[in-house]
Design goal:
The structure is a homodimer of 239-residue chains. Chain A is mainly beta and 239 residues long. The first copy, chain A, has 4 helices and 15 strands.
Chain lengths: 239, 239
Protein backbone atom coordinates (compact mmCIF):
# COMPACT_ATOMS: atom_id res chain seq x y z
CA UNK A 1 0.00 0.00 0.00
CA UNK A 2 2.82 2.32 0.90
CA UNK A 3 4.48 1.68 -2.44
CA UNK A 4 1.36 2.60 -4.31
CA UNK A 5 1.06 5.89 -2.45
CA UNK A 6 4.67 6.67 -3.22
CA UNK A 7 4.26 5.84 -6.90
CA UNK A 8 1.21 8.05 -7.13
CA UNK A 9 3.05 10.92 -5.47
CA UNK A 10 5.98 10.50 -7.84
CA UNK A 11 3.79 10.49 -10.91
CA UNK A 12 2.04 13.63 -9.72
CA UNK A 13 5.42 15.27 -9.29
CA UNK A 14 6.77 14.35 -12.72
CA UNK A 15 6.50 17.53 -14.72
CA UNK A 16 6.20 15.97 -18.16
CA UNK A 17 2.93 14.31 -17.28
CA UNK A 18 1.23 17.66 -17.62
CA UNK A 19 2.63 18.26 -21.12
CA UNK A 20 1.04 17.39 -24.39
CA UNK A 21 2.75 14.40 -26.01
CA UNK A 22 3.44 16.26 -29.26
CA UNK A 23 4.35 19.87 -29.95
CA UNK A 24 2.07 22.00 -32.06
CA UNK A 25 0.60 25.48 -32.26
CA UNK A 26 -2.33 25.08 -29.85
CA UNK A 27 -3.09 26.38 -26.37
CA UNK A 28 -1.56 23.35 -24.66
CA UNK A 29 1.36 22.51 -26.95
CA UNK A 30 2.18 25.81 -28.68
CA UNK A 31 5.42 27.85 -28.81
CA UNK A 32 5.17 28.92 -25.14
CA UNK A 33 5.46 25.24 -24.17
CA UNK A 34 8.24 24.18 -26.52
CA UNK A 35 10.87 24.52 -23.78
CA UNK A 36 9.42 21.25 -22.44
CA UNK A 37 10.29 19.48 -25.68
CA UNK A 38 13.77 21.02 -26.03
CA UNK A 39 15.22 23.40 -23.49
CA UNK A 40 16.98 25.59 -26.07
CA UNK A 41 13.53 26.59 -27.46
CA UNK A 42 13.09 28.57 -24.24
CA UNK A 43 16.67 29.44 -23.26
CA UNK A 44 18.39 29.96 -26.64
CA UNK A 45 19.75 33.40 -27.47
CA UNK A 46 20.00 32.80 -31.23
CA UNK A 47 16.51 31.56 -32.07
CA UNK A 48 14.36 31.92 -35.20
CA UNK A 49 12.22 33.45 -36.57
CA UNK A 50 13.10 37.12 -36.12
CA UNK A 51 11.86 40.52 -37.17
CA UNK A 52 14.43 41.60 -39.78
CA UNK A 53 15.20 45.18 -38.78
CA UNK A 54 18.19 47.56 -38.90
CA UNK A 55 19.98 45.27 -41.35
CA UNK A 56 23.57 46.39 -42.03
CA UNK A 57 24.53 46.64 -45.69
CA UNK A 58 27.34 44.12 -46.00
CA UNK A 59 29.78 42.75 -48.53
CA UNK A 60 28.45 39.19 -48.43
CA UNK A 61 29.26 36.42 -50.86
CA UNK A 62 26.78 35.86 -53.66
CA UNK A 63 24.29 33.10 -52.99
CA UNK A 64 25.12 30.22 -55.29
CA UNK A 65 21.85 28.34 -55.75
CA UNK A 66 22.24 25.47 -58.22
CA UNK A 67 18.78 23.94 -58.34
CA UNK A 68 18.65 21.50 -61.24
CA UNK A 69 16.24 18.95 -59.74
CA UNK A 70 12.49 18.43 -59.55
CA UNK A 71 9.68 18.72 -57.01
CA UNK A 72 8.11 15.27 -56.97
CA UNK A 73 5.63 15.05 -54.09
CA UNK A 74 4.02 16.85 -51.20
CA UNK A 75 3.63 15.59 -47.64
CA UNK A 76 1.31 16.79 -44.89
CA UNK A 77 3.19 15.94 -41.68
CA UNK A 78 0.59 17.49 -39.39
CA UNK A 79 2.70 20.62 -38.86
CA UNK A 80 3.27 21.82 -42.42
CA UNK A 81 3.01 20.98 -46.10
CA UNK A 82 6.41 19.76 -47.21
CA UNK A 83 7.67 19.33 -50.76
CA UNK A 84 9.88 16.38 -51.67
CA UNK A 85 12.69 16.91 -54.18
CA UNK A 86 14.91 14.81 -56.40
CA UNK A 87 18.11 15.49 -58.32
CA UNK A 88 20.94 17.96 -57.86
CA UNK A 89 19.85 20.95 -55.76
CA UNK A 90 22.80 22.61 -54.04
CA UNK A 91 23.40 25.85 -52.16
CA UNK A 92 27.05 26.90 -51.84
CA UNK A 93 27.92 29.34 -49.09
CA UNK A 94 31.01 29.85 -46.89
CA UNK A 95 32.85 27.59 -49.38
CA UNK A 96 30.58 24.74 -48.28
CA UNK A 97 27.99 22.78 -50.26
CA UNK A 98 24.56 22.36 -48.69
CA UNK A 99 22.15 19.92 -50.34
CA UNK A 100 18.44 20.75 -50.50
CA UNK A 101 16.56 18.21 -48.36
CA UNK A 102 12.99 19.57 -48.58
CA UNK A 103 10.97 22.74 -48.59
CA UNK A 104 7.88 23.57 -46.56
CA UNK A 105 5.46 26.39 -45.84
CA UNK A 106 4.28 28.60 -43.00
CA UNK A 107 1.01 30.59 -42.98
CA UNK A 108 1.44 33.42 -42.19
CA UNK A 109 5.19 34.07 -42.49
CA UNK A 110 7.44 33.35 -39.50
CA UNK A 111 10.13 35.95 -40.17
CA UNK A 112 8.95 39.52 -40.51
CA UNK A 113 10.70 42.17 -42.61
CA UNK A 114 10.60 45.59 -40.96
CA UNK A 115 7.70 44.38 -38.85
CA UNK A 116 5.75 43.26 -41.95
CA UNK A 117 4.13 39.83 -42.02
CA UNK A 118 3.51 37.96 -45.30
CA UNK A 119 0.64 35.53 -45.98
CA UNK A 120 3.08 32.72 -46.85
CA UNK A 121 6.76 31.88 -46.30
CA UNK A 122 8.62 28.97 -47.88
CA UNK A 123 11.68 27.44 -46.20
CA UNK A 124 14.16 25.58 -48.40
CA UNK A 125 16.10 23.42 -45.93
CA UNK A 126 19.66 22.40 -46.83
CA UNK A 127 22.26 20.31 -44.98
CA UNK A 128 26.01 19.97 -45.46
CA UNK A 129 27.98 16.76 -45.02
CA UNK A 130 28.28 17.37 -41.27
CA UNK A 131 24.57 17.96 -40.76
CA UNK A 132 24.86 21.75 -40.48
CA UNK A 133 21.72 23.42 -41.79
CA UNK A 134 21.13 26.40 -44.07
CA UNK A 135 17.61 27.67 -44.80
CA UNK A 136 16.73 29.84 -47.79
CA UNK A 137 13.45 31.65 -47.02
CA UNK A 138 11.08 33.11 -49.62
CA UNK A 139 8.20 35.43 -48.79
CA UNK A 140 4.97 35.43 -50.82
CA UNK A 141 2.80 38.50 -51.37
CA UNK A 142 -0.81 38.43 -52.58
CA UNK A 143 -0.99 39.27 -56.29
CA UNK A 144 -1.37 37.02 -59.34
CA UNK A 145 -1.84 33.28 -59.05
CA UNK A 146 1.35 31.26 -58.52
CA UNK A 147 1.79 28.37 -60.97
CA UNK A 148 3.97 26.22 -58.72
CA UNK A 149 1.63 26.62 -55.75
CA UNK A 150 -1.20 25.68 -58.12
CA UNK A 151 0.58 22.45 -59.09
CA UNK A 152 1.29 21.61 -55.45
CA UNK A 153 -2.32 22.37 -54.47
CA UNK A 154 -4.04 20.18 -57.07
CA UNK A 155 -4.56 17.46 -54.50
CA UNK A 156 -3.38 18.53 -51.05
CA UNK A 157 -2.71 15.58 -48.72
CA UNK A 158 -4.38 15.20 -45.32
CA UNK A 159 -2.26 14.81 -42.17
CA UNK A 160 0.15 11.89 -42.43
CA UNK A 161 -0.36 11.48 -46.18
CA UNK A 162 1.98 12.11 -49.14
CA UNK A 163 0.70 12.92 -52.62
CA UNK A 164 2.91 12.25 -55.65
CA UNK A 165 2.70 15.06 -58.18
CA UNK A 166 1.17 14.18 -61.57
CA UNK A 167 3.62 16.59 -63.14
CA UNK A 168 6.94 17.10 -61.35
CA UNK A 169 8.34 20.59 -61.95
CA UNK A 170 11.68 22.36 -61.57
CA UNK A 171 12.62 23.33 -57.99
CA UNK A 172 14.25 26.44 -59.46
CA UNK A 173 10.90 27.71 -60.77
CA UNK A 174 9.81 28.34 -57.19
CA UNK A 175 12.45 31.04 -56.62
CA UNK A 176 11.81 34.73 -57.27
CA UNK A 177 14.23 36.74 -59.40
CA UNK A 178 17.34 37.21 -57.27
CA UNK A 179 17.86 40.63 -55.72
CA UNK A 180 20.04 40.12 -52.66
CA UNK A 181 19.39 38.49 -49.31
CA UNK A 182 19.36 38.98 -45.56
CA UNK A 183 21.62 36.81 -43.44
CA UNK A 184 21.68 35.93 -39.75
CA UNK A 185 22.53 33.02 -37.44
CA UNK A 186 19.38 31.33 -36.14
CA UNK A 187 17.66 28.07 -35.33
CA UNK A 188 14.99 25.62 -36.41
CA UNK A 189 11.62 27.33 -35.90
CA UNK A 190 10.10 24.14 -34.48
CA UNK A 191 11.28 21.78 -31.71
CA UNK A 192 14.07 20.85 -31.15
CA UNK A 193 14.84 24.54 -32.09
CA UNK A 194 18.48 23.58 -32.74
CA UNK A 195 20.77 26.57 -33.26
CA UNK A 196 23.70 27.02 -35.64
CA UNK A 197 21.38 27.38 -38.66
CA UNK A 198 22.39 29.76 -41.45
CA UNK A 199 19.36 31.89 -42.36
CA UNK A 200 19.24 33.43 -45.82
CA UNK A 201 16.03 35.36 -46.48
CA UNK A 202 15.62 36.48 -50.09
CA UNK A 203 14.98 40.17 -50.53
CA UNK A 204 12.63 39.65 -53.52
CA UNK A 205 9.25 38.06 -52.85
CA UNK A 206 7.17 35.54 -54.74
CA UNK A 207 3.46 36.08 -55.31
CA UNK A 208 0.28 34.04 -55.04
CA UNK A 209 -3.46 34.74 -55.25
CA UNK A 210 -5.65 35.39 -52.22
CA UNK A 211 -7.50 32.14 -53.00
CA UNK A 212 -4.24 30.20 -52.97
CA UNK A 213 -3.14 31.80 -49.70
CA UNK A 214 -6.53 30.96 -48.15
CA UNK A 215 -6.40 27.36 -49.35
CA UNK A 216 -2.92 26.78 -47.88
CA UNK A 217 -3.87 28.47 -44.62
CA UNK A 218 -6.95 26.30 -44.37
CA UNK A 219 -4.79 23.16 -44.47
CA UNK A 220 -1.95 24.36 -42.20
CA UNK A 221 -3.65 26.86 -39.91
CA UNK A 222 -1.42 29.36 -38.09
CA UNK A 223 1.85 27.42 -38.08
CA UNK A 224 4.11 30.40 -37.47
CA UNK A 225 6.27 30.60 -34.37
CA UNK A 226 6.30 34.19 -33.01
CA UNK A 227 9.44 36.24 -33.65
CA UNK A 228 12.25 35.75 -31.14
CA UNK A 229 14.51 38.33 -29.51
CA UNK A 230 17.50 39.24 -31.68
CA UNK A 231 19.83 39.59 -28.64
CA UNK A 232 23.47 40.05 -29.77
CA UNK A 233 22.87 39.41 -33.48
CA UNK A 234 23.33 41.94 -36.27
CA UNK A 235 21.23 41.16 -39.35
CA UNK A 236 23.04 41.68 -42.67
CA UNK A 237 21.79 42.67 -46.11
CA UNK A 238 23.96 41.70 -49.08
CA UNK A 239 25.24 44.53 -51.29
CA UNK B 1 22.39 -0.64 7.32
CA UNK B 2 20.35 -0.88 4.14
CA UNK B 3 19.95 2.87 4.08
CA UNK B 4 23.66 3.37 4.34
CA UNK B 5 24.28 1.07 1.37
CA UNK B 6 21.70 2.91 -0.68
CA UNK B 7 23.18 6.29 0.18
CA UNK B 8 26.64 5.09 -0.80
CA UNK B 9 25.35 3.74 -4.10
CA UNK B 10 23.58 7.01 -4.82
CA UNK B 11 26.65 9.07 -4.09
CA UNK B 12 28.76 6.86 -6.33
CA UNK B 13 26.21 7.39 -9.12
CA UNK B 14 26.10 11.15 -8.88
CA UNK B 15 28.01 12.33 -11.90
CA UNK B 16 29.36 15.57 -10.42
CA UNK B 17 31.38 13.65 -7.87
CA UNK B 18 33.85 12.75 -10.59
CA UNK B 19 34.25 16.38 -11.66
CA UNK B 20 36.56 18.95 -10.21
CA UNK B 21 34.64 21.26 -7.90
CA UNK B 22 35.73 24.37 -9.76
CA UNK B 23 36.37 25.00 -13.45
CA UNK B 24 39.81 26.05 -14.58
CA UNK B 25 42.35 25.49 -17.33
CA UNK B 26 43.96 22.29 -16.07
CA UNK B 27 43.88 18.67 -17.21
CA UNK B 28 40.94 17.81 -14.96
CA UNK B 29 38.87 20.99 -15.05
CA UNK B 30 39.84 22.65 -18.36
CA UNK B 31 37.73 23.70 -21.36
CA UNK B 32 37.04 20.09 -22.46
CA UNK B 33 35.22 19.55 -19.15
CA UNK B 34 33.22 22.77 -18.99
CA UNK B 35 30.11 21.06 -20.33
CA UNK B 36 29.83 19.54 -16.84
CA UNK B 37 29.57 23.02 -15.32
CA UNK B 38 27.14 24.39 -17.92
CA UNK B 39 25.79 22.31 -20.78
CA UNK B 40 25.88 25.18 -23.31
CA UNK B 41 29.70 25.23 -23.01
CA UNK B 42 29.66 21.91 -24.88
CA UNK B 43 26.48 22.14 -26.96
CA UNK B 44 26.29 25.85 -27.86
CA UNK B 45 26.54 26.85 -31.52
CA UNK B 46 27.39 30.50 -30.85
CA UNK B 47 30.35 30.20 -28.47
CA UNK B 48 33.41 32.39 -27.90
CA UNK B 49 36.27 32.85 -28.55
CA UNK B 50 36.58 32.46 -32.33
CA UNK B 51 39.16 32.80 -35.04
CA UNK B 52 38.16 36.02 -36.80
CA UNK B 53 38.35 35.08 -40.49
CA UNK B 54 36.56 36.02 -43.72
CA UNK B 55 35.03 39.08 -42.07
CA UNK B 56 32.51 40.85 -44.30
CA UNK B 57 32.97 44.59 -44.69
CA UNK B 58 29.78 46.00 -43.27
CA UNK B 59 28.03 49.31 -42.70
CA UNK B 60 27.97 49.03 -38.90
CA UNK B 61 27.16 51.79 -36.45
CA UNK B 62 30.10 53.62 -34.93
CA UNK B 63 31.13 52.34 -31.53
CA UNK B 64 30.23 54.99 -28.99
CA UNK B 65 32.62 54.46 -26.10
CA UNK B 66 32.15 57.13 -23.42
CA UNK B 67 34.71 56.20 -20.82
CA UNK B 68 34.99 59.06 -18.32
CA UNK B 69 35.74 57.03 -15.18
CA UNK B 70 38.82 55.62 -13.43
CA UNK B 71 40.50 52.28 -12.88
CA UNK B 72 40.72 51.97 -9.10
CA UNK B 73 41.84 48.45 -8.18
CA UNK B 74 42.88 45.06 -9.47
CA UNK B 75 41.58 41.67 -8.33
CA UNK B 76 43.09 38.22 -8.79
CA UNK B 77 40.06 35.91 -8.79
CA UNK B 78 42.08 32.78 -9.47
CA UNK B 79 41.10 32.75 -13.17
CA UNK B 80 42.21 36.20 -14.30
CA UNK B 81 43.42 39.63 -13.24
CA UNK B 82 40.39 41.89 -13.20
CA UNK B 83 40.35 45.68 -13.05
CA UNK B 84 37.73 47.50 -10.98
CA UNK B 85 36.30 50.76 -12.33
CA UNK B 86 34.38 53.75 -11.01
CA UNK B 87 32.47 56.58 -12.64
CA UNK B 88 30.66 56.90 -15.95
CA UNK B 89 31.92 54.34 -18.49
CA UNK B 90 29.29 53.59 -21.12
CA UNK B 91 29.20 51.80 -24.45
CA UNK B 92 26.24 52.65 -26.69
CA UNK B 93 25.37 50.18 -29.44
CA UNK B 94 22.08 49.11 -31.07
CA UNK B 95 20.55 52.23 -29.46
CA UNK B 96 21.20 50.65 -26.06
CA UNK B 97 23.49 51.77 -23.23
CA UNK B 98 25.83 49.19 -21.74
CA UNK B 99 27.69 50.09 -18.55
CA UNK B 100 31.28 48.94 -18.06
CA UNK B 101 31.36 46.49 -15.15
CA UNK B 102 35.03 45.40 -15.19
CA UNK B 103 37.87 44.50 -17.50
CA UNK B 104 40.15 41.50 -17.31
CA UNK B 105 42.99 39.81 -19.17
CA UNK B 106 43.80 36.57 -20.98
CA UNK B 107 47.33 35.31 -21.73
CA UNK B 108 47.64 34.51 -24.56
CA UNK B 109 44.67 36.00 -26.44
CA UNK B 110 41.44 34.00 -26.68
CA UNK B 111 40.17 35.34 -30.01
CA UNK B 112 42.51 35.01 -32.96
CA UNK B 113 42.58 37.38 -35.94
CA UNK B 114 43.27 35.55 -39.19
CA UNK B 115 44.71 32.69 -37.17
CA UNK B 116 47.09 35.02 -35.30
CA UNK B 117 47.38 34.79 -31.52
CA UNK B 118 48.42 37.80 -29.39
CA UNK B 119 50.33 37.65 -26.10
CA UNK B 120 47.56 39.48 -24.25
CA UNK B 121 43.84 40.27 -24.75
CA UNK B 122 41.78 42.59 -22.57
CA UNK B 123 38.00 42.15 -22.25
CA UNK B 124 35.95 45.19 -21.25
CA UNK B 125 32.68 43.67 -19.99
CA UNK B 126 29.51 45.79 -20.20
CA UNK B 127 25.90 45.08 -19.21
CA UNK B 128 22.66 46.81 -20.16
CA UNK B 129 19.70 47.30 -17.83
CA UNK B 130 18.36 43.85 -18.69
CA UNK B 131 21.63 42.06 -18.01
CA UNK B 132 22.57 41.61 -21.68
CA UNK B 133 26.34 41.67 -22.10
CA UNK B 134 28.64 43.40 -24.58
CA UNK B 135 32.40 42.80 -24.56
CA UNK B 136 34.93 45.16 -26.15
CA UNK B 137 38.13 43.21 -26.77
CA UNK B 138 41.58 44.74 -27.21
CA UNK B 139 44.62 42.83 -28.46
CA UNK B 140 48.15 43.66 -27.25
CA UNK B 141 51.28 43.24 -29.37
CA UNK B 142 54.84 43.15 -28.02
CA UNK B 143 56.51 46.53 -28.56
CA UNK B 144 57.14 49.43 -26.18
CA UNK B 145 56.20 49.27 -22.52
CA UNK B 146 52.54 49.99 -21.74
CA UNK B 147 52.01 52.65 -19.06
CA UNK B 148 48.63 51.44 -17.90
CA UNK B 149 49.79 47.82 -17.62
CA UNK B 150 52.78 49.17 -15.65
CA UNK B 151 50.47 50.90 -13.19
CA UNK B 152 48.32 47.79 -12.81
CA UNK B 153 51.40 45.61 -12.34
CA UNK B 154 53.08 47.62 -9.57
CA UNK B 155 51.73 45.24 -6.96
CA UNK B 156 49.88 42.32 -8.55
CA UNK B 157 47.52 40.57 -6.11
CA UNK B 158 47.70 36.85 -5.35
CA UNK B 159 44.63 34.63 -5.85
CA UNK B 160 41.62 35.91 -3.91
CA UNK B 161 43.21 39.29 -3.19
CA UNK B 162 42.38 42.78 -4.42
CA UNK B 163 44.96 45.57 -4.59
CA UNK B 164 43.82 49.21 -4.55
CA UNK B 165 45.81 51.32 -7.01
CA UNK B 166 48.02 54.03 -5.50
CA UNK B 167 47.21 56.17 -8.51
CA UNK B 168 43.86 55.55 -10.21
CA UNK B 169 43.99 56.33 -13.93
CA UNK B 170 41.52 56.97 -16.76
CA UNK B 171 39.81 53.86 -18.16
CA UNK B 172 39.92 55.55 -21.54
CA UNK B 173 43.73 55.56 -21.55
CA UNK B 174 43.69 51.79 -21.94
CA UNK B 175 42.08 51.93 -25.39
CA UNK B 176 44.10 52.07 -28.62
CA UNK B 177 43.36 54.72 -31.22
CA UNK B 178 40.07 53.72 -32.82
CA UNK B 179 40.23 52.18 -36.30
CA UNK B 180 37.10 50.10 -36.70
CA UNK B 181 36.00 46.85 -35.12
CA UNK B 182 34.92 43.29 -35.75
CA UNK B 183 31.49 42.21 -34.58
CA UNK B 184 29.88 38.84 -33.94
CA UNK B 185 27.38 37.16 -31.62
CA UNK B 186 29.14 35.00 -29.03
CA UNK B 187 29.27 33.90 -25.40
CA UNK B 188 31.15 34.19 -22.15
CA UNK B 189 34.52 32.46 -22.64
CA UNK B 190 34.28 30.86 -19.19
CA UNK B 191 31.53 28.83 -17.52
CA UNK B 192 28.58 29.30 -17.62
CA UNK B 193 29.46 30.17 -21.29
CA UNK B 194 26.15 32.07 -21.60
CA UNK B 195 25.32 33.12 -25.17
CA UNK B 196 23.72 36.31 -26.48
CA UNK B 197 26.90 38.33 -25.87
CA UNK B 198 27.76 41.12 -28.32
CA UNK B 199 31.45 40.80 -29.24
CA UNK B 200 33.24 43.90 -30.48
CA UNK B 201 36.93 43.30 -31.16
CA UNK B 202 38.90 46.47 -31.89
CA UNK B 203 40.86 46.40 -35.13
CA UNK B 204 43.75 48.43 -33.70
CA UNK B 205 45.97 46.80 -31.10
CA UNK B 206 47.58 48.07 -27.92
CA UNK B 207 51.23 47.32 -27.14
CA UNK B 208 53.25 46.16 -24.14
CA UNK B 209 56.82 45.05 -23.54
CA UNK B 210 57.94 41.43 -23.54
CA UNK B 211 58.75 41.77 -19.83
CA UNK B 212 55.22 42.98 -19.11
CA UNK B 213 53.69 40.16 -21.14
CA UNK B 214 55.84 37.63 -19.29
CA UNK B 215 54.92 39.06 -15.87
CA UNK B 216 51.17 38.88 -16.58
CA UNK B 217 51.47 35.39 -18.01
CA UNK B 218 53.38 34.28 -14.93
CA UNK B 219 50.45 35.33 -12.72
CA UNK B 220 47.58 34.06 -14.91
CA UNK B 221 49.15 31.16 -16.81
CA UNK B 222 47.41 30.01 -19.99
CA UNK B 223 43.87 31.23 -19.28
CA UNK B 224 42.67 31.19 -22.88
CA UNK B 225 39.78 28.99 -23.95
CA UNK B 226 40.51 27.46 -27.40
CA UNK B 227 38.66 28.97 -30.37
CA UNK B 228 35.17 27.60 -30.98
CA UNK B 229 33.50 26.63 -34.26
CA UNK B 230 31.92 29.62 -36.03
CA UNK B 231 28.95 27.52 -37.31
CA UNK B 232 26.29 29.78 -38.91
CA UNK B 233 27.87 33.09 -37.93
CA UNK B 234 29.27 35.67 -40.32
CA UNK B 235 31.88 37.93 -38.73
CA UNK B 236 31.60 41.62 -39.67
CA UNK B 237 34.20 44.35 -40.01
CA UNK B 238 32.96 47.94 -39.69
CA UNK B 239 33.53 50.24 -42.67
Amino acid sequence: MKRKVLATALIAALPYISHAAEWGYGEENGPDHWGHFAEVCASGKNQSPVDIQNAAASDLDDLELSYHGQVVDILNNGHTLQGGVEGHNVLTIDDTEFELKQFHFHTPSENLINNQSYPLEAHFVHADQNGNLAVVAVMYEVDDKNNQVAQLSQSLPTAGETTALDQPFAVKSMLPEFDGYYRFSGSLTTPPCSEGVRWLVLNNSQHLSQEQADALHQVMGDNNRPVQDIYARQILLSQ
